[in-house]
Give the backbone structure.
Amino acid sequence: MSNLAVILARAGSKGLPDKCMRRVLGRSLIDYSLTHALTSTRLDAVVLSTDSAPAKQSAESRSVEVIDRPPQLADDMATIDAAARHAVEKWEHRHDQRVSNVVILYANIPVRAEGVIDRALERLISTGATSVRTVAPVGKHHPDWLFRLEGDRMVQLRPNSIHRRQDLEPVYYHDGAVIAVTRQALFAAAGSGDSQAFLGADRRALVQRCEDAVDVDEPMDLLLAEAVLRDHRSISGRVPAFERVAAAELPFVVKGSRPACSTFVVAEIGVNHDGQVGKAVQLVDSAIDAGADAVKLQVFSASELASSAAPLAEYQKAAGDDNQREMLRRLELSDGELQQIAQYCRERGIALLATPFSPRDVERVVRLGVVAIKIASTDLTNTPLLRTAAQTTLPLVVSTGAATREEILATSARLRAWRVADRLVLLHCVSRYPAPLSSINLRAIAS
């Protein structure tokens, strides 16, 4: 079973043109929705359906796949189910696979309750319903207290004499946070002429509080979203995982290492062995002589890691290289050579870490007997690699140097959702070699 999220973002809007790019607390509305989707643990893929160039750029910066929405599906007469079907068909064609369930997310909703996407999917699957929508109770704008006007004369919308709120019949409105629907129901509605038909025959509700979602359609909604996000702790009693930054203690203790209160020093061997086991062994000795607690290697396949057209960094050019893939090929170590180095580390009593660059490399790293898996900052958004690493029982040390704050928050929330919070380290680093003192910014560690 596969679950696909389709984020819908139109450039045109009569109330707020290109509203998905409006900003709340320094972030665009669509960026919040992208984060909500990326922190879901039940979604297998996320796509953005849009005709907005800025929205497309935002998605691509988060490594989210984009489906270009045609003009006939981008005006205010187009139905959301038609746009969703178009996106699903395009995604299925690209990936040669068929989805089971579709989650429709509006790009103009910056406030969603933590885990609500996963809860909606779980309700859809467990009940066998055709659709699940998030709803919230109607308060003082209840239909029993609404009026129509005949001139300036007020006429009750629904005749009644109810004067106490607690006596009102409970009614609910769709708050826009999540629509989860089976693929079968979504596509069965094509051509029906009924804009609600895609919800199917068995429509279920997931009840939320009013403050659990803010749907931005007009300027006042932007102010409401900002107020809720600023004061989420006092309004809802908690802060969403994707907005929470928690300090983590070092989650692993290496046998024979220093006390937990002291600094754990890792000597980066990386590829400085030049593809030679003998030189790698010498570097292990040097690390021990220098007092390091551990050494770290990189495990990769050049043909899988780099394109033949991949550019070189300036420091690589300075070393005399002219082709990225060929340079990496010279630096590869075979499984047998890696095992020799791992065995030498065991004999010398120094801990070993390693950085894998693909899911297959994770398996190779585990076989080395490492004390932790290191994730490069350029792979902080590499979901297949992270998922495979999380499925091991090893601690994960995840670098952040090439990532934005939003990417760090989304990834740490996803890893916590995968139940690796007690073995997760976020590592501050600067992806410049060598890093000038002016860019080191060590106080970022406190965040």
Notes: The CA atoms of residues 114 and 246 lie 16 Å apart. Residues 233-261 have pLDDT under 50 and may be disordered. The chain has 15 helices and 19 strands. The first helix runs from residue 29 to 38.
